[in-house]
Design goal:
Blueprint (H helix, E strand, L loop, with lengths): L1 H4 L40 H15 L3 H132 L1 H39 L1 H35 L8 E2 L4 H6 L1 H10 L13 H19 L7 E4 L6 H12 L2 E6 L9 H14 L5 E6 L15 H13 L7 E7 L7 H5 L3 E4 L5 H22 L5 E2 L4 H11 L5 H17 L4 E2 L1 H34 L6 E2 L2 E2 L3
Length: 593
């Protein structure tokens, strides 16, 4: 019945995009069916008639009021339900608007983020371009500075050449003027002498006559005085006796002074002088103390104990062992004990000499280095020279570490080796002086062939240490050590004309250490010097990675060539040892060479 009371009039139309609101329910006798499409089409007046008839019947019925109230209550209930649905519809509309606002805000936030990213990328790109422009400006400025410096150097060279040319020209003019002056003076002097020749001869004659007369009178006077004195001396026997005694005492004094001077000289030489066999020593000689007293004093005051392994790269096992030896040597010196003799053997360049020096400095001892190759050429003087070395060693107040390099050169086997009598005598003198351990000196022998030692020498050795070639880790440490010493320090110090290109130094050192397998520490040190020389020989003074690799390749080739020579020499020696000598019998046959 709602259409009868006009309840559906003025309802709002649903916004686009939302479902149609539910139609209000039909009430009363309005009947069902779809809503007509237009205002007058399909109009059925019977419905109105039935409605009017129903209204009349309701009015006549005694329950008309209750039915009307019930219908009104049903209509109100329907209206309330319809309003609730409308509220839900409006809430859905508001939620949809909120969702649209949230979606728009999210889109706006994404847009802002994207714009921020674009701004950041643009700012980074502009910063990158600015840095590139700044680097390019720096590079151009550096090139300009280098060009200005080169021009200034050329200008200075030109000015120096002009100054030298001017000085040479002035010297030449001065020399010519001096020659002309001397020539003019000589000519004038000669002309004057020619003009005054008679006068000069007369003056010379008068001077000669006067001098002759003076000499004759002096001779006469001296003869008279000497004759009177000799006559008085001979006539007095006390004077004669005193004169003879004085001359005798003078002769005895001269002879005694000569012998005392010789003895004192030998004593001073034994105490303070350096023996001829000693190549290098940390002790100060008399000559050095006289020439440089202040320098010697300052050096002695500044000398402090050092770490025995400073600058020495060894394997961990060997490093621990030699450190124990160094500590034991230092404690032995402090407690005035007996020093132990050490043999260090191994390939050349493995750090034997360097460790001996460091151990002497660590323990506070003096060190002296001699080589076995200097003993044989001395011949008969070898025995005296050997005794002088040990006499000199015994005079050290701090203790002396005597390092004998290439000891196998003169300490060979006396039974099998063909050595001269002089060398044999020198070896015997060495054995005599090292027969017992000493509190004054410590003997350290170094050799590449210890199997050639005489058995008596082996008996005097207390500790044997093998210095092997460096392993992979030791090679890398050595490469880094000498790279820092010969390349990085000169390049960063600024005192030398050397620059270093940009590359990964640590990775390059590791790669080089893997390539130089079999090289000794000395060869790696020479490789560092080769890098430095390559930088100095370049035009711009820059050491590049390619130059380093080239020097490494050359060093590897040289090392392989040396090893090839060594293997050939060993094969030749083995063949000579295994081949029978002339006249020996092999399987019943006599070989004649």
């Amino acid at each position: 019945m709602s259409w009868l009371f006009g309840l559906n009039r003025g309802q709002p139309e649903p916004p686009p995009g939302l479902p149609e609101p539910p139609p209000p329910p039909a009430g009363g006798s309005s009947g069902g069916g779809d809503k007509p499409k237009d205002k007058w089409s399909n109009f059925d007046p019977t419905g109105l008639e039935r409605a009017a008839q129903a209204a009349k019947e309701l009015d006549k019925s005694r329950h008309a009021k209750e039915a009307l109230d019930l219908a009104r209550m049903q209509e109100q209930t329907t209206q309330m339900e319809h309003q609730g649905k409308m509220k839900e519809y409006e809430a859905a509309v508001e939620q949809l608007k909120g969702d649209q606002i949230r979606i728009q805000a999210e889109e706006r936030r994404k847009t802002l983020n994207e714009e921020t990213k674009q701004h950041q990328a643009r700012a980074q790109y502009q910063d990158k371009l600015a840095r590139q422009r700044y680097e390019e400006q720096l590079r151009q400025q550096q090139l300009l500075n280098e060009e200005n410096l080169r021009r200034q150097e050329e200008s200075v060279h030109k000015q120096e050449a002009m100054r030298k040319a001017t000085i040479e020209h002035e010297m030449e003019l001065r020399h010519k003027n001096e020659l002309l002056r001397i020539e003019a003076e000589s000519k004038a002097r000669a002309r004057v002498e020619r003009e005054n020749a008679d006068i000069i001869r007369e003056q010379i004659r008068l001077k000669a006559a006067e001098h002759r007369q003076t000499v004759l009178e002096s001779i006469k006077t001296a003869g008279a005085v000497f004759g009177e004195g000799f006559r008085a001396f001979v006539s007095d026997w006390d004077k004669v006796t005193a004169t003879v005694a004085g001359l005798t005492l003078l002769a005895v004094g001269v002879y005694s002074a000569r012998n005392a001077t010789a003895v004192a000289g030998r004593y001073i030489e034994a105490r303070l002088g350096k023996p001829s066999l000693v190549r290098e020593t940390s002790r100060f000689t008399v000559g050095e103390a006289i020439k440089h007293p202040v320098k010697v004093t300052i050096k002695r005051l500044k000398s402090k104990p050092q770490d025995a392994l400073e600058g020495v790269v060894l394997s961990p096992t060997l490093e621990e062992r030699v450190r124990d030896i160094a500590i034991a040597t230092r404690n032995t010196r402090q407690n005035h004990g007996l020093y132990r003799n050490i043999l260090m053997y191994g390939p050349p360049g493995t750090g034997k000499t360097l460790f001996a020096k460091k151990m002497a400095m660590h323990s506070g001892m003096d060190y002296a280095i001699m080589t076995g190759g200097d003993v044989a050429p001395m011949g008969r003087d070898g025995v005296t020279a050997m005794h002088k070395v040990f006499d000199w060693a015994n005079t050290s107040r701090r203790g002396l570490l005597l390092f004998v390099d290439e000891a196998d050169a003169f300490l060979r086997k006396r039974s099998t080796e063909k050595i001269s009598e002089d060398l044999r005598a020198t070896l015997n003198a060495f054995l005599y002086r090292t027969g017992e351990q000493s509190k004054k000196f410590m003997l350290v022998l170094a050799s590449n062939q210890p199997e050639q030692f005489d058995w008596a020498i082996n008996d005097r050795i207390d500790e044997i240490v093998n210095f092997a070639l460096p392993g992979p880790e030791e090679r890398e440490r050595l490469v880094r050590l000498y790279f820092d010493k010969y390349v990085l320090e000169p390049a960063t110090g600024g005192r030398q004309r050397m620059k270093l290109a940009q590359f990964d130094y640590g990775k390059k050192c590791s790669d080089i250490a893997k390539r130089i397998d079999g090289m000794s520490g000395r060869e790696i040190s020479k490789l560092g010097v080769a890098w430095q020389a390559a930088a100095y020989s370049s035009e711009d003074g820059i050491l590049t990675e390619a130059m380093i690799d080239a020097r490494v390749d050359d060093a590897i080739k040289q090392h392989l060539q040396k090893m090839d020579w060594l293997y050939r020499d060993e094969e030749t020696s083995v063949k000579n040892l295994t081949s029978p000598a002339a006249g020996e019998t092999v399987d019943g046959a006599i070989i004649l060479l």
